[in-house]
Structures are given as C-alpha cells and as structure tokens.
Amino acid sequence: MLRIIPVLLLFVCSTALAELQPLKVSPNGRYFMTADGKPFFWLGDTGWLLFSKLKREEVIKYLDDRKQKGFNVIQVMVLHTTKVVNAYGDAALKEANVAMPITTPGNNAGDAAQYDYWDHVDFVIKAAAERGIYIAMVPIWGSEVKAGKVTPAQANQYATFLANRYRSQSNIVWMNGGDIKGSDSMAVWQMIGKTLHEKDPGHLITFHPRGRTTSSIWFHNEPWLQFNMFQSGHRRYNQDTSAGELHYGEDNWKYIEMDLRKKPAKPTFDGEPSYEEIPQGLHDSLEVRWNANDVRRYAWWSVFAGGCGYTYGNNAVMQMHRPNDTDGNYGVTNYWYEAINAPGAAQMGYLKDLMLSRSYFDRVPDQSLIAGEAGEKYDRLFATRGRHYAMVYTYTGRNISVKMDKLTGKSIKASWYNPRDGKYTTIGSFANKGVQEFDAPGEVKEGNDWVLVLDYL
C-alpha cells in the first residue's frame, strides 16, 4: 500500500539562500562571522530530536517559530541511536550499522519508496537554510559510541558519507561527540573529526562534551576543532559534586575564562546550559525547575565573560515531546508545540539584538570597569566593553559602581537595557571621571536583571 506523505511547497527565496554561506572564525579567533565578514552571534536552540520525531509540516512550524524569535542555529542529533526511525517509519541504518545508511533513489515526499530517512534530513536542512538558520549536526550520540556500537573503521565510512552528502549545503556546522567525555572512545571521535575536516573542510567543527566539561580539555589543539563548546550542565550550586578544577556549579562563565586562556585563541560558548522547564539536577522530576530567569542568567553571564554566543534549551522542545509518546524524559509535562512559547525562548533574542547593536569583534570582557567587589554567585556583576561602549550585567538589580575614568570620549550616555523585553530606559549623560553609582530599577531580587549600557559620546 502506498504511504502518502504530505508534500509542502517551500517557497525558496534565492536571495536568502545565496546570502547564507558557511560560517567562519573571526581573525582574532574569538567570534564567528559570515562569509563576507559580518558578525554572527550564535543563538542556538537544542532541537535534538528534530530529524527523527517531527513530520514535514511540524518541522516548518518549529523553524518558523525559531526564526521569529531570533534563533539562527538549531543543534540536532543525526542519529540518536543506531536503530533510530523517523516520524514516517524510515530507519536510518541497515542492521544498525553506521557504515550502512539506508538511501533510496529519488526523494519524492509522496512516494514511500523514494522518501527515506536521509531525504527527510535533507528537507530539514534546506528548510532551515530558507529561514536563515544553520543546522549544527551531531553525527551520532555519545552513548551509542561508548556502548561499543561504532568502530573507528565504521566511523570513517559514516563520516565520509556525511561529508559527501552535505559538504555542498551552506548552513551546516558539525558537532562531533554528543554529551560524552572526549576520553571515552577517543579513537572514534578523532576519526570522525579528522574525516569530516579532511572531506568537508568548508564547514566548522566542534565537540559536544559531557556535562560540566569543555571540548578544550581533549581537543583544543586538534586541527579539526575550530571552536570550543562546553556543557555547563543542569545542576545548581549545591548539586555539583564534581571533583577537581571544574567544580563550577552554576558559574558557567568560568568555562569561558578557562577556554579563553588557551592558545591558539578559539571561539567558545555554552552549548548546553540548564534547560527551561527541566528539573534542577535533571533526574528528579519532583525538583524545582529551571525557569526563564535562570536561562537568561546563564546566557548573559557567559556572553559577557567573552562567549561568542549561547544555546538555549527547553525540556519538551529538546526531546520534541508529542502526545502519546512513551519515551518522555526528565519529568516532561507538556508538548514541544506548547513549549516553544516558553518565556525564556522569546527573551533570548534580546541578548543577540544588544550584542549586534554595537561594534562586535572588538568586544572583550573587562571586570576592571567595576568599582568595588564584583560579587559572587547570583550577586556577581559582569562587565564587557568595545571601542565606543561598555556594558555591565546584574542578575539581581543591585547597584552598579563604575570607574568612569576607564572610559573614553568627552562624556558618557547611560541607559538601562531590560533583558526581559529588550527595551531601553535613558538614565542621562555623565562625565568620564571618578566613580559613578547607578541604581537599577526595581527591588533587589533574583530575576530583576538589567544591563547598564554606557555609550561614549
């Protein structure tokens, strides 16, 4: 019996497709840029199971929403497991072997004999490109490799297949690994990284590591790794029992500082922080859940510390949870199409907007602008500056004292920027001398976050 798959007409904007080219690393090694040298602020969303769980019309609904909210990267697993089957019942692999992808002649969505797992991946990638969105693809999730289901030889064949199929697609970024330490199955990760880099040199590659680790620990000096990514994880301060140097708790900005100390300079960012609507600590569904305040805090802290972007996540969206699913994880209580409207998702775009509103490649973290103690944990202030501006973020709305004589220009125009709605409130103009204290609006409390914006006149 012929299985009919709804065919969606995609109105391709040739101009948009022409403008969307593979990303590059900026000359200073700190940020991303487009092919023509314009700033690119990575604002990602974790749509991990997008390829396997959503049908074509659902893909369009999701991508349209993320485009509207300002996201420009979606992080996706190509293979969640070696036995993965998509929403149309198509298996990705023969005999669960990554060296044997199942492909069919043609890609007609109305013909079950033609439309296969990889055609559906192609559809998603192209639909994203039409919306100015990059797809950051994890070839295979780390747990499958750690379980011994992929040999280095199979990894070479699989990575070759991926490179040959997608090297001509402009909106691809490769994420080797998948929630795993680089030291677990190192030979496989090295093989995937080297093969992709050799056969698809036009696309950037990183490594998605285990929680509370960063790719730089294992691969910073590897030629195939062009930028770093860390997973700050889902634990609050008193849940972090990690041993050694990376006992950071919620202080995700410390990973940024760690990575930026390494040479050569490579961009870095939090590719998996605490997700909105997921239990704190991840596994106990009765725990308090991370909310919009928390995801904003992680975003602003890490970017002001020098991050080249940020990836947001939501519990239901990352697993594309649907009605009648029997595999819901982490106490998920709603569905992906409801969760895309969680408040934290809409607020992520305000960070990107502010970062791109002023000179970009010259921006650096600079805590020396803060007079007195920067503070600890939720009370900490974070300062960043460019050639003609400075900014200071407070998560609690505490007063901010600034060493004005460290700023240049004849005078300084001060404003408050609201991370919750993206609106400015003018404060006034000040001389760039001495110490000036700024009183943030509202009472001091968690989630009353503000950005003090200082423009040099």
UniProtKB/TrEMBL annotation:
Pfam families: Apiosidase, Collagen_bind_2. Transmembrane segments: none annotated. SUPFAM superfamilies: (Trans)glycosidases (SSF51445). Residues 364-455 form the Putative collagen-binding domain. One of its GO terms (molecular function) is hydrolase activity. Keywords: Hydrolase, Signal. Residues 26-361 form the Apiosidase-like catalytic domain. The lineage of its organism: Bacteria, Pseudomonadati, Bacteroidota, Chitinophagia, Chitinophagales. Gene3D superfamilies: Glycosidases. This is Glycoside hydrolase. InterPro entries: Apiosidase-like_cat_dom, Collagen-bd_put, GH. Residues 1-18 form the signal peptide. It comes from the Bacteria.
